[in-house]
Model the fold of this input.
Amino acid sequence: MKVAITSTGNSPESKLDSRFGRCSYFVIYDTISNSTEFIPNPYKDNIEGAGQASVQLVASRGAEKVVSGEFGAKAKLIFDSLKIKLVILKDPEKRISAIIELLNH
Amino acid sequence: MNNPPHFKGFSPIGLSEEKLPVIINFEEYEAIRLSDFEFHGHVGAAQIMGVSRPTYTRIYESARRKVAEAFVQGRTIVFEGGKVYFDSEWYSCNSCGCWFNHIEKDQKIENCTLCGSTYIEQYSDDSQKLFAKDCCVCPECGYEKLHLPGAPCKIEFCPNCNCHLVHKGAPTSEGMEKQ
Done:
């Protein structure tokens, strides 16, 4: 299963980005092959619609779960209709590697 | 509530030191909006929010005190949480501290989506308990009815004894089953 995590940087030591639509990087982590892929967020500086566009990006990569600090109302609606699970982690100090460890329970 | 704020809060200008933020719940924000922005009376505003008038006044009082605290002490205001109802079920994990939603309602949820811990609880539990506390009871036979926010208990009648109901703190389990 693929999990998307919002990240502030492009290394596993980067911290979780507390915003979803305007995060710096998306990390696509595959729980089966244990691989990670860092995608720079092209919608980071969008004036409008960053959330919705990011949902499409995450969904097109086949993520079934998304970990972030917060989700906007519009993004949440689309996630619900796509049946993608949301995880809100209110800890901006958490590192991507630590989240991946949690996912490998 | 109808209109959640579309921003996360306020911060004071020209203060370098970081102080603990004042957390204003969404219902408190809504109370200030209804009373001081749309100029509703407490009775009207309580009906809009679906709570009783005394509850509304309590929420409003708390909101104003928090705003004053932030103003006087130069603290940040953060809008967060409170007793809000969500459209899908939300759970919190006591192990890793995350929040997660559960989409397939027909499947039972036992583990945290993130860390797999079984130490999870449903978010809405708390607010339902608070809501169930309010109850109208018959002083004669003990018949109980869930209290409608904004409606005084005495306007309700007992179907058995045909007398006015009075307010009761917490419902008994038998009373709840009778409904």
